[in-house]
Every structure is written in C-alpha cells, then in structure tokens.
Amino acid sequence: MLKSVTMGHLSAGFTAVMIGYASAAVIVIQAASALGASEAQIESWLMTLGLIMGLSSIGLSWWFKTPILTAWSTPSAVLLVGVGSQYDIHTAIAAFMLVGIATILTGYIKPLCKAVENIPSPLASAMLAAILLPFCLTAFEVVEVAPSYFALLFCCFCLAKLWLPKLTMFILLGGSLVLAIVVGAFDQTDFSISFGAFEFMPPNLDASNLTAILNLAVPLYLVTMLSQNLPGLALLQTYGYRSPTKSALVTTGALNFLTAPFGGFSLNLAAISAAVCMNEDVDTSKTQRYKAAMCAGVFYLIAGLFASSVVSLFLALPKSITSILAGFALLGTLLLCLQNAFSDPKSRDAALLTLLISFSGVSLFGINSIMLGLMVGLIYSNLQKHRLKPELKTEGSEKLG
C-alpha cells in the first residue's frame, strides 16, 4: 500500500487539507469563540475535528476504494458566528448532537433524504448567501478601524485573485502573517508549537431548552446537507464514482454525535477541496485516486494533533486581520450562492424573500430568521407553482384546439 503511494497522491492530499485550513480554520475558531468557548475548548474543537476528519477520510476511502474526503462545514461555522451570541456552548453541543442523529436518520430513511433533496436549490443558496453576507461585509468594515491593514491585504487579495487564483488564500494568509510580524501586531506570547488536548463540554439537554436547541440544530442540519453533503455526493458522481450515500451519512453523523461534546460541531462530505483528490493530475488511473484522500486523512490527523499550534497561530493575529481573512475567504462562495439563487427567473422572487428575511435577523414565535426565511421562500415557491399549473393547462388546451 505505502509503496504504491505517489507524490501525486501526497501533494493532492496535502493541498486539499491546506485549502480547508487556510480558508476556514479562522472561521471555526471564531464560531467557537462566539459561543463563549475558552482557548482550551477551542483547541479541543480543532483537535477533535482534525482527528475525525482524518479517520473518516481514511476509513471511507479505503473501504470503498473511492476518494471520499470529509471536512467540517464552513457554512455551519459561519452560521454559528452569526447567531452564536444567542446561545451558550452547552446548548450548542446539544444541537450538534441532534444534527448528528438527524444525519444518521437521513442515511437510513430514504423519504427524509428525498425531502432534503427536493428543497429548491435557489432557496438553499439564498439562505446560505444570507448567512455568508454579514461575514463578508465585516471584512470591509475593517477599513474604518485599520485602513492600512485593509489596503495592503485587499491589494494582496486582488493581485492573487487575478494572477494566481488557486493560491489566493495561501498568499493572503502568508501576507497576513508577514504584515502582522512587520508592524509588531503578531502576539508571539500566544504562539507555541505543542499538542492539543481534549476537553469535555456537557450538552444542555433540559426540556425547557428544546426550542433553543431546535432553532440552532435545524438550520445547521439543512446548511450542512444542502451545502456540503449533497454537493459532495454529486461531485463523486461527476467524476464517475459510485456514491455510498447511506454509509457516508451514517458514518459522518455517528462521529458528529459521538464527538460533539469535545467540539465536533460538524462532519460531512467535502465539496470543493475534495475535487483536488479526484482529477487526472492526481493519478491517471481512476481506481488509484482514493489514496490521495487517504493521504489527506493522514494530514488531517497531524493537523488535529497539533491543534494547539493552529489555534495559537490565529489567536496571535490581530482581530482586524482575522476578520479580513475570514470575509475574503468566503467571497467566492457568496458569489456562487447569489448566482445560483437568482439564475432562474421563475424562482427569483422566492429566493429574494428567503435572502432578505434570513438576513434581517427577525424572529417570530421563537423561529429564527434563517428558518423563517426558508419557510417563507418554500411557501411562496409552492404557491407560485400551483398558480402556474392552470396557466400551463390552458395553454396546452389552446394548442390542442
């Protein structure tokens, strides 16, 4: 097995992991911080995530001989940053566990999986865009408090995006570190190279807390399924692989449930970074590309073990710089969401309602704005379909006449 691992497998696996960490580790840290997590708890989050992503990627890829890469859900982390102040970490842990159970059930119950798949893509994209938008706007608000930081990193981002688009986040992260060190804003007292450690965070399972748990769990589940798992399964099919839907959902859901008290806030199929392990550059033989995902799993394990160093690196950076990193990392995803949300003229009104209500932050009868936006969008979309059906029948009758 080891003898047949090539540099193509190793480089693809390393690149896939670096894409995830360079573009989203700071967002995961901010998500945990928004829930009131201590530095030790944040380390536990990243250690747990690194280990379960590594083990699941290695296990699933080896068992099915398919490049199955797992990851944390960046959109879910963004959601937590946005609403985290409304919940304590113990309520959030209970919500993470519930999402794990729901994911397992989705793998076993086909009608439930179909119901999620039948949510119109434009509405799902509009909901996700509403979650991402505040994050992206925050990056530009830095210009008021640290204009020099913003100007330099914005130029760095634009130049990299134009000439080296595949390396944009690596260049931006490197530029951020250099800038922080040069201006003396890098707090070296917080940076150290050491192993991470687990910390148990008990869930709040009180019946009186059920509404809060559901308000957080349902959007997390939908965002993870619609923006990560379904695209991840579709990506496998695009590259000609059989999608082991049930096994993938049950495995990731079970690990999510079991590790939630240690910081496993989400585990799902990777979407964008997984493509790095599936193309012809990895291996000319399609049957051997699973080794790239297994290599990625090994790099995940290493990142998990050194979670303390990852956390201290990002905490040593000024908050203004981490805000820019997080916001710029999500601009591409935001653009794709907006394009998908408004590409079909028939669904634009429903998508717009979903976007605006989800973005507004309003709540009604204990239902938060994200769920409310999706519900209104679905109701409007269904009413629109029923209104159009009689018109289509009339047109058909006229043609026959």
UniProtKB/TrEMBL annotation:
GO MF, one example: benzoate transmembrane transporter activity
Listed transmembrane segments: 12-32, 44-64, 89-109, 121-140, 169-187, 207-227, 248-276, 296-317, 324-342, 354-380
Protein name, per record: Benzoate transporter
GO cellular component terms, A-Z: plasma membrane
Domain of life: Bacteria
Pfam families from the UniProt entry: BenE
Organism of this sequence: Pseudoalteromonas phenolica
InterPro entries found in the cross-reference section: Benzoate_Transporter
